[in-house]
Amino acid sequence: MAKRTGSKRKKRNWTLPQFSLPERATLWRAGVAAAWLLLFATIISAWSYGVPELKAYASEQAAHDVPAAKIEVEFIDAPAWVAGELQERLEMDVRTALNGTEPFQQDDLKRVYNALLHTGWFESIEQVRRRRVDLIEVKGVFVDPYAVVRQPDGDYLVDPHGYLLPRRFPAGTVDRFVVILGVRFPPPGRAGVQWEGADLIAALRLNQLIDEQPWRSQVTAIDVNDHLQGRPMRLITNEDTRITWGSAPGEESGLEATVDRKLAYLNNFYHNYGHINGGYRDDLDITSHHEVVITRRED
Predict the structure, then answer these.
(1) Which residue has the higher pLDDT, 47 or 128?
(2) Which pLDDT score, from 0 to 100, does residue 282 have?
(3) What domains, with CATH codes, occur in the chain?
(4) Spatial distance between the Cα atoms of 229 and 218, rounded to a whole number of angstroms
(5) How confident is the model at residue 253 (pLDDT cuts 50, 70, 90)?
(6) Distance CA 75, CA 145 (A)
(7) Radius of gyration of the chain (CA)
(8) The pLDDT of residue 295
């Protein structure tokens, strides 16, 4: 058997290239520069990631450090009557809802939203937001306080549609609202519920009508006593004149003067005598088509 013969493979010797001294110095400087660039890039990356986290952590810690009692509350575009005791009470409701909650959590703002909506002072709430760690902004639509309904235990505040508002005054202590007297039904059990009774609705409709007149301030009360049994409504003036108005606006009987005729009587007295009572201290009846009937009051 023939032997296979072959040439022997030559071994190759690998050696590092030899650099001169200047070349080695140049390479060393390049390596150092690359190392510094890598280190700088690492620091920038860590900083860009860590700073927002650090800011968020700092803000959260700052919020924890602000007690609920120190938080400011701002009601955006609130009407002028939201002031004093009422404003302080609403601000306290916000702080109470925030007490013990985690800052910048959606749940705490929902808690504020629900707390304010249940006060009865808002028709709706559009937004609650935490603009700063120590500032809560509330944007909503407040109710419209319109009249008070007199009851044995005080004067109850209602809106133009007869919904009870969360405020009761001692009888006769508030003069900026017309007083509705003689309603048949008691107030609802809680704020936000409409007061029962067509007599109250009739009085509110009449009040909306005279609200547009220049002599509006001369009417202090509307009496609807027994109006549900057919008795006419009466206006009571700031000079204690009683003016028989009649039916609710738009519900006049065939023999009763129209709304325009009644207003014409009162406007004539106002322009000629400065008061809708025409200078009389007696009771007036403006339900006739033909004339104002004057009834002498017996003292």
Answers:
(1) 128
(2) 85
(3) 68-142 (3.10.20.310), 147-295 (3.40.50)
(4) 27
(5) confident
(6) 17
(7) 41
(8) 85
What pLDDT sits at residue 180? 98
100 pLDDT above the threshold of 50 = yes
Residue 298 in contact with residue 282, Cβ under 8 Å? no
Nearest to 99 by CA among 64, 59, 146, 135: 64
| Alpha-carbon span 86 to 23, nearest angstrom | 84
What's the mean pLDDT in 94-107?
72
pTM for the full predicted model: 0.72
Cα dihedral across residues 213, 218, 220, 226: positive or negative: negative
The single-letter code of the amino acid at 165 is L
Residue type at 66 in one-letter notation: V
The answer to whether 119 and 88 have CB atoms below 8 angstroms apart is no
Residue 172 has pLDDT above 80, yes or no: yes
Distance CA 95, CA 247 (A): 48
pLDDT at res. 234: 97
Tokens describing residue 278: 């025409």
**How many angstroms separate the Cα of 129 from the Cα of each of 17, 107, 125, 249, 294?**
70, 11, 11, 44, 60
Query: Token digits for 18?
Result: 């030899």
DSSP annotation of 176: S
10-65 tens-digit pLDDT: 444 444 455 455 555 565 566 656 666 666 666 666 555 554 554 444 445 454 55
79-97: buried (b, 16+ CB within 10 Å) or exposed (e) per residue? eeeeeeeeeeebbebbbeb
What's the distance, Cα to Cα, between the start and end of the chain in Å? 158
| pLDDT at 216 (0 to 100) | 96
Distance CA 121, CA 140 (A): 10
Of residues 146, 249, 248, 145, the one with CA closest to residue 199: 248
Do residues 241 and 280 touch, judged by C-beta distance below 8 A? yes
